[in-house]
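[09:14] KT: can someone run the structure on this one? pasting the chain below
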Amino acid sequence: MTAKIPIGILGATGIVGQRFVQMLEHHPWFDIAWLAASERSEGRVYSEAARWKLKTAIPSAVAQMKLSPAAPEGAPKVIFAALDASIAAEMEPRFAAAGCAVVTNSSALRMRSDVPLVIPEVNADHIRLIESQPWRRGKGGRRAERYHRRRGRSVSGFRAR
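[09:31] RB: done, C-alpha cells below
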C-alpha cells in the first residue's frame, strides 16, 4: 500500500473545518497532518480551540494536534480551506502561489473565468482548466472548489481553481 498524502485544513475550528476533519478522518488517500485557524486559536490544542458542534466525537487523531499559523510556510502541499469568503479571497491565492493545491468551500473566486465547476461524474475533463490558472506558472499551486448545495445533500464534486 502506498503512503497517504499529508493534507492540511485551513479554518479547522469552524463548522465547515470540523466537517472537513470528520470527512477526511478515515479517507483512504489523505492523512490530516496540519491544522490552522485564526490568530486567536493558533498555538492551542485543537480539542480546546474548536467548539466541536458535530454529532460524532472529535477524532482522537486530531484532538491533540497543535493549531498552526494560517500561513503557507510549513503547510502540506494539499490544503482543504474552510474560510469565510472575505478571508479566502486574500489567503487562498497565497497558498496556491506557494505551490499548494487548495480545495475550497468559499465563494470568493467562484466567478473567475478560469474556474470551472467540476462534477466528476458529469464533466471531469474540465479539471484541465487548472493548467491555465496564473498561480500554476509560479510554484505549481492550484485551486479546486468543492461543489455543494446550500440545502439538501452535497454532490460529490469539485470546482477547479
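[09:33] KT: thanks! The first strand starts at residue 5 and ends at 10.
[09:34] RB: yep, looked fine to me
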